[in-house]
Amino acid sequence: MSDKNVRVRFAPSPTGPLHIGGVRTALYNYLFARKQGGKMILRIEDTDQTRFVPGAEEYIIEAFNWCGIEFDEGVINGGPYGPYRQSERKDIYRDYAEELIASGIAYYAFDTPEELSSIRQQYESEKKTFIYNYEERQKLRNSLTIDEKNVADLIGKGTPYVIRFKMPEDEMVVMDDLVRGRVEVNTKVLDDKILFKSDGMPTYHLANVMDDHLMEISHVIRGEEWLPSLPLHVMLYRAYGWDEPQFAHLPLLLKPEGNGKLSKRDGDRLGFPVFPLKWTDPKTKETSRGYREDGYFPEAFINMLALLGWNPGDERELFSMDDLVEAFSIERVGRSGSKFDPEKARWFNHQYLVTKGNEELADLFEPILTGKGIAAGKEKVSIVVGMVKERANFVTDLWDQSSFFFVAPAEFDQKAVKKRWKADSYEQMIELQKVLSGIDDFSSDNIEQTVKSWIEKKEYGMGMIMNAFRLLIVGALKGPHLFDIVALIGKEDTLQRIDFGLKTIGKKEA
Ligand code: GLU
Fold this sequence. Notes:
It is a single chain. By secondary structure, the protein is mainly alpha-helical. The protein folds into 5 domains: 3-74 and 208-251, HUPs (Rossmann fold, 3-Layer(aba) Sandwich), CATH 3.40.50; 90-196, Glutamyl-tRNA Synthetase, Domain 3 (Glutamyl-tRNA Synthetase, domain 3); 264-351, Glutamyl-tRNA Synthetase, domain 2 (Orthogonal Bundle); 357-406, Helicase, Ruva Protein, domain 3; 414-505, Arc Repressor Mutant, subunit A (Orthogonal Bundle). It has 20 helices and 14 strands. It has helices at residues 20-36, 56-67, 90-102, 113-125, 148-156, 204-214, 230-240, 264-270, 298-306, 321-327, 342-355, 358-371, 378-388, 397-406, 414-420, 425-437, 444-458, 462-474, 482-489, 491-505; strands spanning 7-10, 39-42, 73-74, 106-109, 162-165, 172-177, 181-186, 194-196, 219-223, 246-250, 253-254, 279-280, 287-288, 338-339. The protein has a 3-stranded parallel beta sheet. A 3-stranded antiparallel beta sheet has the order 4-5-8. A two-stranded antiparallel sheet has the order 6-7. Strand 6 (172-177) and strand 7 form a beta hairpin. Helix 1 packs across helix 10 (321-327), helix 9 (298-306) packs across helix 11 (342-355) and helix 18 (462-474) crosses helix 20 (491-505). Bound molecules: glutamic acid. Glutamic acid is lined by residues 11-13, 45, 204, 208, 222, 226.
């Protein structure tokens, strides 16, 4: 199905780094837009100037660049519905707010923050909660209780005011959500939300609804935390007589244990990032780790996120961005929250790492080697990564898995020595060294054949020889096929490693 009229948006507030839950929301919007042949818009919702954080918008844009989520319109590339940054649309909102006052749907409120907080305190002391709603508004300082002339005077004198939505007393709001189905809320439980603030800026609610309307957004796909705002939003559309977009509220990303929203603290506690990129708070200088800096491939990151809340309806787990576009549908977004699984995140990275070509991996590994002062040559590095990539989740793991290809062991795993270096090992390894030095064709197969026939002829234990040999070459009992290792490091290095190991470990007393 292709619907050119599909227009979706991701509308972050630049208040800090983007949580991976936000990236997932953007991703689902993106997949939906691409699948339907529609447009994807990036709008910055920066009407709350007290929460503005410098660098946050740039961070958001860089994060999307990194993970391959593209926008058709918005703050990056402009478009016919701009400007796309709400602070630059300031002048549009006030008239719309005034229009609601004229039609009796909203009102001016002059209560100062001090007045409201003292009422709140008084209520608390009586063990009650103060809510600015249909019960209370008649007792407060607003254009419902002050006559028209005095309201005009107050405004004329420059008295600060806000504009509040006059929530009906007892009305059932019926809404439709593509994920949750039919949602009903009685207005009795809702408060008179501020739509326009004393600083001349709209609040999130007014600006968000207006911009979705003005930008002809067809589907609002966003996090579940906005579901409580839905009745107000729907009522605003209805008050203006505008068509409502379709709504889809996505379930939360949950802590690995499943209770509650995934937070930065969970990441710190369990050692995984909750942000796409590293972030340094401009004020506190506190840093938070990012998927990119932790060595995740953007494709793996996207694949993992896509499956946290959506499923393809079959057992498939590996999806490129194109595959996701093809397979995605809102109908298959689950209603309940998805537990974040750090182990699974690493598993996804591993899947992408092993499918990368050895040459590509060698290029990625190269800087790590250079950092360690190793210049091994692309050909050797490609062969090495091909041998060890199955054991790595990240490019950085490649070093742990392959360092012995590039540097001879300087010490030996003591546990392994204790267990595998037997009374006869010393003499046997001297013999083996002789056998090896006699081999001209130092290829893996040929070394293997020669060494094995020597072991058989001597009736030595295969395991015993191979363990001791590995210990001398690698320094520990790990690594890929031993004959592949010695063939690659070459005869000279092999013989030297045996010398050094014999000297260092020495004879074991019988
Ligand atoms: N600015 C809101 C946010 O930061 C947007 C919510 C919405 O998509 O309506 O998440």
